[in-house]
Amino acid sequence: MAAGHSADPARWQEAFEVLMSRIAGRFAQVEPRRRVRDLVLGLLSDLPHKNCWSIAEWAGEATPGGMQHLLGRAEWDADRVRADVREYVLEHLHDEDAVLVVDETGDVKKGTHTVGVQRQYTGTAGRIENAQVAVVRADEHVHNPAPESLVPLSCDEIQRLFITLIVRPVHDAAHRLRWSDWRRVHQVRSRTSHYRRQAASPT
Predict the structure, then answer these.
(1) Does residue 199 form part of some domain?
(2) DSSP SS3 for 57
(3) 49 in the Ramachandran plot: left (φ > 0), alpha (ψ -120 to 50) or beta?
(4) I need a labelling partner for 118 at 20 to 30 A (CA). Which of 95, 138, 144, 182 fits?
(5) In this structure, are residues 18 and 87 in contact, taking their beta carbons and an 8 Å threshold?
(6) How many domains does the chain have?
(7) pLDDT tens digit string along 89-101?
């Protein structure tokens, strides 16, 4: 769901439904096909902990049994679903003039159960901590750059907008989009101020 520098809730909703329709044929029965949609929305949501229990509760199911069945015993072709998603991403993000931007983000953790958690250096804390480090990617497009007054939509901002506009729709979508622009304007100011301080400091 390439966003460029704008966010169109109707377009994002349509894109999500297109992707769900594309993978629907990989599920032999109706229930897993319906449930995978709830699972994906749950994974994209702002739940603090994401597992079969929390996502099932969030989706309004009485028990986690259905989600557990989907991931453990239901008949569906995971390899073909992965291929479908990969093709979808390539169709929407492929651009000969695109520049790949990779960012490493650290998330300090208290426990040890999250995937990838270990004692390691993270810039978030500025020291070695029990943390999960994720590498995030974004694409800058020559033909559709963000306005100079806004930073490009980050992965976190896209997820926040997707949650508020699609996963958990609100009536004041325009208000949410104004907040998104406000955050990005202030990120530009912060970045500019940071670069000025960096340039002014002695090496």
Answers:
(1) no
(2) helix
(3) beta
(4) 138
(5) no
(6) 1
(7) 778 766 666 655 6
